[in-house]
Amino acid sequence: MNGDMIAFFILALCAIAGGVMMISSTNVVHMVVSLIFTFLAVAGIYVTLSAEFVAGVQVLIYSGAITIIMLFGIMLTRHDKENEKKTPKLRQFAAGGAILVFFLIMYGKIKDLNFPQGDVELHVDNTKKIGIELYSNYVIPFELMSVLLLVALIGAVVLAKKDEKEEGGGKE
Hints:
76% of the residues lie in helices and 0% in strands.
């Protein structure tokens, strides 16, 4: 086992641990923190696979934006802790055993996996290659997406202003 494999297994265990903590936690804020932990571990896995651009997008979009949106949603809703049921210990041990069996099966299959080595160097300047491809062959769809997002932003502002006027009694 080389360093990349060790880093992959550590990051994979961190991602799995974050997912398990998210599922088993009863506090919603702890769930979101566990989700951030999982997203960052997945970004680390992307780095070990030489996909730095995808890792950056993972950190910016998922660990940043999506998590902030989830936190706002959590903070703006009510949560009743008295009616939440506790998970039985037997179910927790069964879930842990199932995760362990799944890990062992996947480890055995991944260890025996063999990809043919080609002359393709995907990890060399992959962010530069994505940028060149995006801004040369796909420039029109890229610009259309930016216009679509701008229209959606303007529409959201207009709808928010309209709701604000309706709540104020219709007076301007």
